Structure formats: structure tokens, C-alpha cells
Amino acid sequence: MTQTQQSAQRRANSLKRLSQAGLTAKPAPKKLRRLVVTVQPKIPCGAPSRGRFFAGATSFPCAIGAASVKQRKKEGDLASPAGQFRLLGGFFRPTGQRPIAPWPLRPIKETDGWCDDPQSPAYNRLLHLPSRYSNEKLWRNDGLYDLVIVLDYNLWPQRKLGGSAIFLHCARSDLAPTAGCIALRQDDLRKLLPRLAKSSVLIVK
């Protein structure tokens, strides 16, 4: 046996002993690149629309728009848009623990808003407050925007009145419907983000 072969054999034996002792590192979990949200049947009849968020072999209950999911969403219709969307990064409330995610997350400022005014050149864009244009404040005290991921809905190209501020964010504890966003309970969202890749997409159907 050559010196190189002896060295390789010693390394293999060493790794075997570590493995038997439970000291070797476990392989990193595979990154999730395809996430799917589906609408759940209304049970009982007339109950608010809810969704199921599928991430690999795991799934979570989620909130969707109060008007369910639509193929052609319009501004203010309370529906979540159907389609495939990239996740572009986002924001987090700096009063809590910084989330782990594959893309940049910026601390939310009290002057951050998201424009929902179709007449504004900043429509469906981050906006500095105060502003004369209608907007949604990102600094909230109800916890819903403690963690916000921006979806690439109606950004490039942009359709006026096509809908704005479509995010993946924290849900209320009872998973109450949203105005069009997809929402997970904060604990579920924080567990999910480290398992995503920069190229992950969200499919809503």
C-alpha cells in the first residue's frame, strides 16, 4: 500500500469512528426551489377562504385574499393573484430577531411605505413617507409586517390598476384573510426562509 493509500485509509477510518460516535455533520437539507399555495375548500360553506402552503414534504396552513385567488387581479379587489412569482427579498421589523434568508432583508423604517396609488409614478414601489400618494405603511404595530417578502407581482412589466403590495408576510393567529397577500404564521415563515434558495418561486393556484 502506498503512502497516499495509507493516508486515505486513515482518513476513512477516522470518519467512520466519528460517524459511529454521532459526531459527523449531517448533510445540509436540500434547498426548496418550488413553493405552492392552493385554495382550500370552504368548510363550512361560507367560511373565509384559506390556503395550504406546500414546501417540499412540509405544508402549512396559510391566509390568502378575502376574495380568494383570481387569474386577473385588480387593485382593491381583495384577491390573491394566481401565477408563478419570484421572491425578491424584503423587510423585517428591527425590534425582533433578524431572520435568516437567502436574499437581503432590510430593517423597516417608520418612513417606509408601499405605494398603492395607480396615478403615482411610484405605483407598486417602495415609497418614502410622508407622501401625497396613497400608500400602505410598512411600519405596523399588529405584527403582520414583522417579516415581509416582496413577490415580483406586477413589477416588470407593470399594469396600472393591476394590484400592488403583494407580499408573503406574517398572518394573524386565526389566519384571517388578507387584502391579497399570502400570509403564514410568523413561526412557520421563519422556519421556511432558511430552506429557500435565491431562485425559489411561489406558485399560487
Describe this structure in words.
This protein has 205 residues and is mainly β. It has one domain: Beta Barrel (L,D-transpeptidase catalytic domain-like), CATH 2.40.440. Helices cover 12% and strands 34% of the residues. The chain has two helices and 14 strands; from the N terminus they run H-E-E-E-E-E-E-E-E-E-E-E-E-E-H-E. The strands form three sheets. Strands 1, 2, 3, 6, 7, 11, 12, 13 and 14 form a nine-stranded mixed β-sheet that branches. A hairpin with a 2-residue loop joins strand 2 and strand 3. The longest helix has 18 residues. The mean pLDDT is 90.
What share of residues is helical? 10-25%
Uncertain runs with pLDDT below 50, 5 residues or more?
A: none
Please state the structural category.
Answer: mainly beta
The geometry reads as globular
Kindly give the count of domains.
1
Q: What's the number of extended β-strand segments?
A: 14
CATH architecture: Beta Barrel
Radius of gyration: 22 Å
Distance between termini?
Answer: 61 Å
Q: What average pLDDT do the residues reach?
A: 90
The CATH topology is given as L,D-transpeptidase catalytic domain-like
Strand content: 25-35%
